[in-house]
Automatic annotation (TrEMBL):
Coiled coil: none
This protein's record includes keyword Transmembrane: yes
Higher taxonomy: Bacteria, Bacillati, Bacillota, Bacilli, Bacillales
Membrane topology recorded in Swiss-Prot or TrEMBL: Multi-pass membrane protein
Keywords: Cell membrane, Membrane, Transmembrane, Transmembrane helix
InterPro entries cross-referenced by the UniProt entry: ATP_synth_I, ATP_synth_I_Bacilli
GO cellular component: plasma membrane
Subcellular location: Cell membrane
Protein name per the record: ATP synthase subunit I
Membrane-spanning residues: 12-28, 34-53, 97-117
Main localization, broad class: membrane
Length: 124
C-alpha cells in the first residue's frame, strides 16, 4: 500500500478517535454547544482530509501519466469551512462558533502530529 494511503488511514483513525471523545463530551457534560461545534468542525475537517487525500492521489496519477495536472481542491475545502461557519451562525445557541473553527483545523493539527510521531518512530 502506498505511503500516502497508509498516512491517510492513520490520520483518519486519529480523527475518529477525537470525534468519539467529542461525542462523549457532548453526551456527558454541560458544554454541549462547545462539543457540538467541535463535532461539526471535526466531521467537516475529516471530510476535507478525505477530499485532500483523494485529490493528492489523482494528482500523483496524473503526474505519473504525464497528463495535465489539476488543482488540489482548495475551493471545495474552503466551501466546506464556509458551510460549517454558516451553520454555527444560524444556530448560535446550539453550536459554538469558535469550537467549529477549532474543529475545522483539527485535520491539519492531526497531520502535523502524525508527521512528528512517524518521523520520531522512523529514526529510532
Amino acid at each position: 500500500m502506498p505511503e500516502l494511503k497508509l498516512m491517510y488511514i492513520r490520520q483518519r483513525k486519529y480523527m475518529f478517535l477525537l470525534l468519539s471523545v467529542y461525542v462523549l463530551g457532548w453526551g456527558f457534560t454541560s458544554y454541549q454547544s462547545i462539543f457540538l461545534g467541535l463535532i461539526l468542525g471535526t466531521a467537516l475537517s475529516l471530510f476535507n482530509l478525505w477530499l485532500m487525500a483523494r485529490k493528492v492521489d489523482r494528482f500523483g496519477e496524473a503526474v505519473a501519466k504525464g497528463e495535465k495536472v489539476h488543482s488540489l481542491g482548495m475551493i471545495s475545502r474552503m466551501a466546506t469551512a464556509v458551510l460549517a461557519v454558516m451553520i454555527a451562525m444560524k444556530y448560535p445557541e446550539k453550536v459554538h462558533l469558535i469550537s467549529v473553527v477549532i474543529g475545522l483545523m483539527t485535520s491539519y493539527i492531526v497531520i502535523m502530529i502524525d508527521y512528528f510521531l512517524h518521523s520520531i518512530h522512523l529514526h529510532k
